[in-house]
Design brief:
This protein is mostly helical. It has a domain at about 20-55. The protein is built from two helices and two strands, in the order H-E-H-E. It has helices spanning about 10-20, 35-50; strands at about 20-25, 55. Strands 1-2 form a two-stranded parallel ribbon. The longest helix has 17 residues, at about 35-50. The protein is flat.
């Protein structure tokens, strides 16, 4: 919670980098839909579940 442009996202990314986590950021586009979301979740779950990669989700 906070005003836009105050650096919340940057701070979270720096914290993830410091903790040696990979950043997983969902890129919203005009064509992004439920199927795209499910595909992103599949990739994310594979990464954190099977590959055991510490990850920060955006």
């Amino acid at each position: 919670i906070g005003t836009g442009g105050s650096g919340k996202k940057l701070l979270a990314k720096i914290a993830g980098f410091t903790a040696k986590c990979q950043i997983f950021e969902i890129q919203l586009t005009r064509n992004y839909n439920e199927i795209s979301f499910r595909e992103d979740l599949k990739i994310l779950f594979y990464q954190i579940g099977l590959k055991n990669i510490k990850t920060v989700l955006f």
